[in-house]
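Page 42, continued from yesterday. The earlier attempt failed because a stray header line got pasted into the input along with the sequence. Redoing it now with the clean sequence only.
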Amino acid sequence: IYRHLKALTAADLVVEAGVRKIYKSGEEKPPTTQRLFARTAKFFYLSGSTEEYISPENVKKRAKLLREILGIDLKHKPSLDCLEEFIVKLESSNDNCMTDLFKEHPDELAEVVGEVPVHELQNVLNIYSSIRLLLRKSEFEKYLKECLKIS
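This time it went through. Structure tokens are written below.
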């Protein structure tokens, strides 16, 4: 376990918080000591995952599926290149929005979401991301209409 603690300490995810001495009653042996560690934050936001998510292979795969679904709904299939470009723009925008939020307000977020289960937090963050995207609607609207060939 100390091998893992050493790696976590080196990554500044945990810090040594102190030492606990354990005295065993009735024995004249010296006390046993245990090193205590503590987390450095209530939660951790891992940015950078978008790079893998928007890798050319992943984008191409999602664009092909999205093209088929949109083809059913719109009665025509949009350009794959256009959809791939849009996916990258959208995912980059979402990631930047989240990264900015966590960088600019880490203490406030820790206080608000520190005890929230991960699945609930993920749902709320998805809604937050959608709201932020809708507030920037004009940035995407013209491009999307041209891409999807709709008016």
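Notes: The chain has a mean pLDDT of 83.
Reminder to self: strip header lines before submitting.
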